[in-house]
Amino acid sequence: MTDQEQAAVLTLALMAASADGSQSAEEKSQLQALAALGAPVDLAALNQQLAHLTLAQVAQQLPDETTRHRAYEVALLVCNADGPANPPEDAFLAELRGALGLTPSALLPLEANTRTLAVAAAAPPAPASSPAQPSSDSALDDVILQQAMLTGALEVLPDSLASLAILPLQLRLVYQVGQHYGQELDADQVKDLAGTLGIGAAAQMVEGVVRKVLGGLASGLLGGFLGGATGLAAGATVSFAATYALGHVAKRYYAQGRRLSADDLRALFVRFQGEAQGMLPRVQNQIQGLAGRLNVQDIIQELRPR
Fold it and tell me: Is pLDDT of 221 > 50?
């Protein structure tokens, strides 16, 4: 993408974040992270100019259909990052489709899959759709490692929806760990634990989806590689370490009857992230191999509410 095209895409991301008349904490976090990526525009200044811009004006800066489709994809993901798009956001997306000259029927699979993942991230899975419970604590460790490798592998894939599948998988892991220790969790409890550790839709969208969609704009995120020696892209290493740490923090937390403080939880999270990073050289080939076998549609179907 040219600088002009990147600027237009980011403008549409800002407009999408304000489509319902306000910006949620999740959306503000997205925009701050976008600015940190070295966007080719002053996002703070642009945010003040949105009232004077029309979708048609911005769409004129996107000359080809591929770029327009990517721009719509970014806007769609922003609208669904803090839960399924609400009616004002749906109206904005409909107007944007018209301004970009996109055929609604061609976008139906993308929109349906995005909504499925947004719904899956809003609530833990029903027991019937949860994986079988591990038989022991050591078996639970294996489950945590396998899920960490799965989320890392998803970040290797070029499909932006692969990144959106990571948060639902992480929340499902927390739910499964809680069940292992006899804890019956609701959606808010699962999301609260992840949120305490800084895991949420906004950050993962920026580190995954936006990096994939905008390519070079986000290539500097985390220096391109974490530690420089793992051979995995930054998104894969971050997702692997975050999922591994989340699973083990949840294990400690629920095994001890939820008696750990927020500070204790965050300290454990940092510790387990370090453990995961030390493990990466031993598992990176497995992660890359898993990425070669993954089908994003299978993951979406697995996460679809029953």
Answer: no
